[in-house]
Amino acid sequence: MYFPSSLITTAQLQKEYEKPNVILLDCTIDKVGQSLKDAQLALIPNSLFFDIENTFSDHSSPLPHTLVSTEIFTKGIQELGINQNSIIILYDRWGVYSSPRAWWMFKVMDFEQVYVLDGGLPAWQEKHEPIADQYIKPLAKGNGEARFNRAWYADKDYILTQYQNSGTRIIDARSQARFTASAPEPRAGLRRGHIPYSSNLSFDLVLEGNNYRSKEELKKLFETFNATHEQIFSCGSGVTASILAFASHLIGNQNIKVYDGSWSEWGQEDLDLPIAQ
User: Among 92, 247, 99, which Cα is nearest to 171's?
Assistant: First the structure.
């Protein structure tokens, strides 16, 4: 492992970001009701854009942010100049929001040397490090190749076989109000509630401002979820679920999956899947 943890600090990045085998990816996407598209572009120097919304989402699916095929993922990362031995560092301009989603995508595609910058761009700016206003262009096409690793992935059919299993914990990253059906869903056409037998851990609880909480604090948050159990993380569209999945990974849990469709799929009225409130 290139770094001692999958979560790296600005000080660690400052020493590494100019090295030729380091690939620095801005993974920013819009939040629900919030966008940075009209803001002046501010980046860590040497950044490439990992376009989750377009290049790396399956637009043949009606669901948001659905994972693409290995062929499309391979083509996309090769165009970014990513090699099989690249050191991949991910960040986003919000702080910590979509970078863990990108981390999970790379893990599903069987890449090992993948890291998330704690605090993202705001943490970099707080240290008065240099800022760029445009992305760099890859020097050459990469040779990185995706291989689907099902150990990290859950879909609707898998959830249906596991949600009543006492050895599986489904952990929902949505707010408690959405989990308990006391608040409406932000996307139209979705029922309220949660997957039966699932638990709620709102994603913002693992964060303190723009950063992840300490490992000791994370362990306390996860102590009710037996580490020997399989953990499947869900949310609205698979983004904030990845924030929890990464937090669980940081404290040593290894049997981790993200439900790619999440509530955008499970809550659909026409699917009539089992729901608890």
Answer: 247
Cα–Cα distance, 111 to 152 (Å, whole number): 12
CB 259 within 8 A of CB 230: no
Which DSSP string corresponds to 205-266?
GGEETTEEPPHHHHHHHHTTS-TTSEEEEE-SSSSHHHHHHHHHHHTT---EEEESSHHHHH
- How far apart CA 73 and CA 68 sit, in angstroms, is 6
Hey, what are 108's tokens?
A: 């599903």
Whether this prediction's pTM lies above 0.85 is answered by yes
Which two tokens mark 99?
């970078």
Q: For residues 269 and 157, what is the distance between their CA atoms, to the nearest angstrom?
A: 17
Tell me whether strands 7-8 and 22-26 are parallel, antiparallel or unpaired. Answer: unpaired
What is the pLDDT at residue 181?
96
* Answer CATH for 151-266 from 3.30.230.10, 3.40.720.10, 3.90.226.10, 3.40.250.10: 3.40.250.10
Catalytic residue chosen out of the listed positions 25, 206, 235, 239: 235
Examine the pLDDT at 215 and tell me if it is beyond 90: yes
CB 131 within 8 A of CB 125: yes
- Nearest alpha carbon to residue 50 among 1, 90, 100: 90
Is residue 27 annotated as a catalytic residue, yes or no?
Answer: no
